[in-house]
Recover the amino acids of this structure.
């Protein structure tokens, strides 16, 4: 049974996935102990000076789970989880699974707007955060929210600093292990965030069964085993890093996960050399930085066998540099927190490896590429990508209105991505129709930024579009209509400061703003974003 507010797979489809051995009744909360039985004193996690074995990890998960229960965490509770790349993240996530609670994976860059929304939408009863991290006091924010939201009764501070009154310190989340009930494998294990198209981010329920299947399948495809060393370079709460095969896939295979505090070449090259990393995953922006740094670095990267690149369009020119300059295989990954993953394979011919995003990872993934009237198009023709399958959601959490448009009647998810299929069935991602800016791999829903811009005094209308950028792939460009005389408009610096003050995450702030007399409309009367994108990309324009 799935939590109320979720859309389960139809009974006969679920029975089919079980009968075919895809869903095996795995409870994610039980995994650390099973891994410990299998891999014992092998190193599971490396983070800073810490090296944690599988046995230690399982013990810590058991004690942390018991600590959460003692502090009032109950099965079914939603808990917003906001932690950086530390061993704590892994321990806390699995401890919450073990306690039957459902973590909501928030980014550490999220601020008041996002954290409040996630708490409200999920009906969270708790928040787990890093204390003061990169100069921001997450506990103070969570305490403020707890004062406003009656359901939010527990604030946990996993930082090393002094802990505010009313928050539970990390040392308090520790107790003698308890016998805890197992989870229903068909129920939600945790929530991922949607890259979004609407003004407010959506929650993606991921079940124990579907995520266990995803990670096992991708780990097998990637040939992971006890000798594998995975570097978590991107934020660990990103689906790519967490489970593609990422942290969960590597631990399921008896390998070692190395957690990098950030994705800079400085930090990551040193870790690759020291820990003999075999696999890592990055977005194209990070790959570009690594290639630049490589020319100045004598780090030994010879252990690295595969570099996964995904999350945003990879320019062919960049793709072609990976193997010659980094000495490893390039694996393109097209994925989404909603489910579907498509990846290159070790035996791909060089052209496919460079120019396609590979094939879906499961034989049970169903792909449809359709035109504007939902009619399938032939191979080679670009259309919207629709998909359903054993690890792709059937509905966002508590979003019936949006679900009615985001899914077809027969349960296909409308990805909003434009793609074509090669005759051999490989995917080529060609663009998107959804109203999103992909800035260095971060997804920014235009509607969300527009809503905040409209709340700034003096702004009558706002349209946010992507503009191409050499380093980030895209940047955020805002077209604005002033309420008053054109002379009286707020400059970009003030706009950014206002949005920042409103508590919007910094990666969503416009990179450029331009005031216009009015916004162009399509014949149907909607804002013509295509025309605005083209205008934004025109180097001859004057802008703020
Ligand atoms: C072009 N666009 C891509 C690619 C994702 C693995 C890898 C990535 C994600 C991810 C993920 C792309 N080329 N190779 O969850 O497990 C864009 C598409 C897609 C959206 C999803 C994973 N790879 N994209 O990026 O949920 O537009 O997941 O629909 O953050 O990123 O974003 P997200």
């Amino acid at each position: 049974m799935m939590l109320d507010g979720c859309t389960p797979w139809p009974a006969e489809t679920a029975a089919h996935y079980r009968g075919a051995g895809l869903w095996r009744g795995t409870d994610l909360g039980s995994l650390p102990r099973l891994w410990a039985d299998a891999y014992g004193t092998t190193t599971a996690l490396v983070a800073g000076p810490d090296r944690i074995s599988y046995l230690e990890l399982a013990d810590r998960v058991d004690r942390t789970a018991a600590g959460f229960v003692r502090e009032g965490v109950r099965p079914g509770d939603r808990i917003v989880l906001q932690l950086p790349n530390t061993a704590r993240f892994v321990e806390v996530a699995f401890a919450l699974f073990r306690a039957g609670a459902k973590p909501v994976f928030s980014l550490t860059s999220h601020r008041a707007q996002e954290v409040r929304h996630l708490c409200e939408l999920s009906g969270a009863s708790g928040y787990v955060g890093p204390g003061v991290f990169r100069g921001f006091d997450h506990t103070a924010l969570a305490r403020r929210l707890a004062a406003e939201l009656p359901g939010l009764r527990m604030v946990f501070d996993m930082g090393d600093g002094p802990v505010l009154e009313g928050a539970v310190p990390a040392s308090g989340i520790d107790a003698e292990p308890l016998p805890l009930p197992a989870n229903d494998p068909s129920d939600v294990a945790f929530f991922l965030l949607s890259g979004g198209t609407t003004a407010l981010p959506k929650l993606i329920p991921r079940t124990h069964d579907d995520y266990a299947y995803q990670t096992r399948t991708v780990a097998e495809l990637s040939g992971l085993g006890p000798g594998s060393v995975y570097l978590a370079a991107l934020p660990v709460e990103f689906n790519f890093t967490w489970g593609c095969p990422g942290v969960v896939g590597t631990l399921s295979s008896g390998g070692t996960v190395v957690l990098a505090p950030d994705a800079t070449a400085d930090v990551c090259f040193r870790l690759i050399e020291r820990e003999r990393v075999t696999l890592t995953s990055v977005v194209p922006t990070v790959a570009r930085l690594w290639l630049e740094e490589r020319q100045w670095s004598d780090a030994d990267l010879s252990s690295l066998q595969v570099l996964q690149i995904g999350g945003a369009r990879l320019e062919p020119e960049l793709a072609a540099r990976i193997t010659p300059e980094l000495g490893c295989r390039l694996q393109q990954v097209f994925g989404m927190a909603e489910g579907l993953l498509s990846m290159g394979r070790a035996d791909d011919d060089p052209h496919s490896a460079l120019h396609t995003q590979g094939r879906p990872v499961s034989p049970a993934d169903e792909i449809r590429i359709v035109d504007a009237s939902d009619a399938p198009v032939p191979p080679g023709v670009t259309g919207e990508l629709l998909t359903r399958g054993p690890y792709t959601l059937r509905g966002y959490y508590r979003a019936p209105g949006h679900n009615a448009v985001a899914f077809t009647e027969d349960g296909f998810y409308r990805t909003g991505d434009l793609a074509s299929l090669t005759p051999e069935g490989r995917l080529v991602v060609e663009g998107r129709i959804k109203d999103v800016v992909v800035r260095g791999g971060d997804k920014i829903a235009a509607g969300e930024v527009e809503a905040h811009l409209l709340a700034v005094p003096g702004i009558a209308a706002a349209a946010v579009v992507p503009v191409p950028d050499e380093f980030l792939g895209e940047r955020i460009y805002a077209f604005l209509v002033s309420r008053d005389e054109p002379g009286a408009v707020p400059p970009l610096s003030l706009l950014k400061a206002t949005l920042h003050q409103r508590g919007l995450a910094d990666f969503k702030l416009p990179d450029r703003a331009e005031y216009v007399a009015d916004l162009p409309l399509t014949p149907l009367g909607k804002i013509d974003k295509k025309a605005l994108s083209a205008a934004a990309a025109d180097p001859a324009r004057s802008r703020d």
In short: The chain has three domains: 28-183, 210-432, 436-536. The first strand starts at residue 43 and ends at 47. The pocket of J2J is lined by residues 195, 239-240, 244, 310-313, 332-337, 341, 357, 415, 417, 429, 432, 443 (CB under 6 Å). The chain is about 30% helix and 25% strand.
